[in-house]
Amino acid sequence: MQTVKIPLSIEPAKAALKRMTYDGIIVKGNLSRLNEVAEVLTDHVNVSIECGVDPQDLVVIQGTATASLELTCQRCGKGLKAEVTADFVYTPIRNAAKESEDPIPEAYDEIELDEYGSISLVHLVEDELMLALPIVAMHEPKDCELGNKNMSFGELAPEATVQEKPNPFEVLKKLKT
Ligand SMILES: [Zn+2]
């Protein structure tokens, strides 16, 4: 199958009018924040995005991203392979600080347009994949090196408390402030 790189950014209003769909990949090198918290095992992540206009005339950017990752098991500290899928529905807004007159339906996340009326698809997908990561990555007990030792759930192995990779939620929090 031929793989196409999706555009790094789009103008949602135009894309929605043309009902654009993007089915392709984002190369690993563009996902540096995700790479900091998990190892991306393939050279890309798969992304499919549809743009359209809903009955309320809101522009909608909807899609799915899938990544094969290696996380760090919080119990034994060894690698843990995981398929992470993120589904998202966004509506672009002009100015996040300004209250819009019509409330945005709760089903949509809001994404702020930049000064050119564009959004970064790469950032959007990366944020979504980071949010989709398990809060605590752990092997199934039978697969975990420490799983068969008598440890109660939630207790961390001494070596696992030394976090080599930053918590993705902390990273996101910093970015959003
Ligand atoms: Zn483990």
Automatic annotation (TrEMBL):
<dbReference type="GO" id="GO:0042254">
    <property type="term" value="P:ribosome biogenesis"/>
</dbReference>
<dbReference type="GO" id="GO:0005829">
    <property type="term" value="C:cytosol"/>
</dbReference>
<comment type="similarity">
    <text>Belongs to the DUF177 domain family.</text>
</comment>
<dbReference type="InterPro" id="IPR003772">
    <property type="entry name" value="YceD"/>
</dbReference>
<comment type="function">
    <text>Plays a role in synthesis, processing and/or stability of 23S rRNA.</text>
</comment>
<keyword id="KW-0690">Ribosome biogenesis</keyword>
<protein>
    <recommendedName>
        <fullName>Large ribosomal RNA subunit accumulation protein YceD</fullName>
    </recommendedName>
</protein>
<dbReference type="InterPro" id="IPR039255">
    <property type="entry name" value="YceD_bac"/>
</dbReference>
<dbReference type="Pfam" id="PF02620">
    <property type="entry name" value="YceD"/>
</dbReference>
